[in-house]
Amino acid sequence: MSDRKRILIVDDEGRVAYFLRKTLERMDRRFQVETVPSGEEALLLFQEGAVDLLITDLRMPGINGLELIERVRQISPTTPVILITAYGSDEIEARARRLQIYRYLTKPFDINEFTDAVIQALSDRPIREPGILVLPDRHFRRLVAALEDLSRRTEAFFALLINAAGQRIAAVGDSSGIDTETLSSLLGGSFASFLTLGGLFDDSAGLNFLYREGQQVNLYAVNVAEEMVLALLLDRRVSRVPVGVVWLEMKRAVEHLLEIVPNGGWGEPAAALDEAFSSAVSEHLDQVLAERSAPPSTTPPLGPEVQEDGETNLVGLN
């Protein structure tokens, strides 16, 4: 990331916007975080200068989050967007995919998932192609857990899951010294060729394995259906896991990932959204919900729902 990143949070609930802003500012001093209560005010800020990341609620007075994103796409087509909502429907899902949002967080959500999404959105290249994976964050957590488990079993120091366009979905481990953007792009292109090759044998849905043995790092990669690619990096000086065992563990991981992300992960999140919204909201945010109708304060005090020690992990809004 460059030295300064301008982040815009759009939410008509002042205390929630304040909490998210303080969380990001404490996380990284390079973050220049601004908050506004409406989409109309957000558009004015976009006209004043570039925004590196837009975080917006769905339901707000005036234009809603999706309408805001549509207008932002006309001003700044490549700005990554994180959409926060507790309301899911087929129409919302279709519009979110068309607008190429980076992450789709459902309420309530863990604040660590929120900060991880922000870091990844600011680290990844701009979105250039349609077909982005829209996941409820409970599914995203399961993806990350699956990658962590696979890394332990194979002694991989880095695990990466990307979509067919080479855009990161999830990653775990240490990628220092690795050009992950170029790696993702090359893997996406390589497996596009493999899938096309499979079509010659009327078997485009088959498994395609890629292996590169280096002096220090071994690369393993496999497609997950036709929409994703799973990759592992192993340090040859440390790992003693045989190649065949790594392949077996990756094959099992592919099956597990397809259970987590049914149908390749490109549809039907509405039911998951309903389930997420119906789950219990933590007690410390009940007051926020009860005071929803109150006008937001410009300098909201820290209360039970905003702890300076950073231990508050659950956010549930609307």
What is the secondary structure topology, with strand pairs?
Layout: E1 5-10, H1 14-27, E2 31-36, H2 39-48, E3 53-57, H3 65-75, E4 81-85, H4 90-98, E5 103-106, E6 109-110, H5 111-123, H6 137-154, E7 158-163, E8 168-173, H7 180-199, E9 209-213, E10 217-224, E11 228-235, H8 243-260, H9 270-278, H10 286-290, E12 314-315
Parallel strand pairs: 1-2, 1-3, 3-4, 4-5
Antiparallel strand pairs: 6-12, 7-8, 7-11, 9-10, 10-11
Description of the structure:
Helix 2 (about 40-50) runs parallel beside helix 3. The chain is α/β, with parallel strands linked by helices and about 325 residues long. The chain folds into two domains: about 5-135 and about 270-315, Response regulator (Rossmann fold), CATH 3.40.50.2300; about 140-265, Dynein light chain 2a, cytoplasmic (Beta-Lactamase, 2-Layer Sandwich), CATH 3.30.450. The radius of gyration is 21 Å and the shape is elongated. The protein contains ten helices and twelve strands. The chain has helices spanning about 15-25, 40-50, 65-75, 90-100, 110-125, 135-155, 180-200, 245-260, 270-280, 285-290; strands at about 5-10, 30-35, 55, 80-85, 105, 110, 160-165, 170-175, 210-215, 215-225, 230-235, 315.
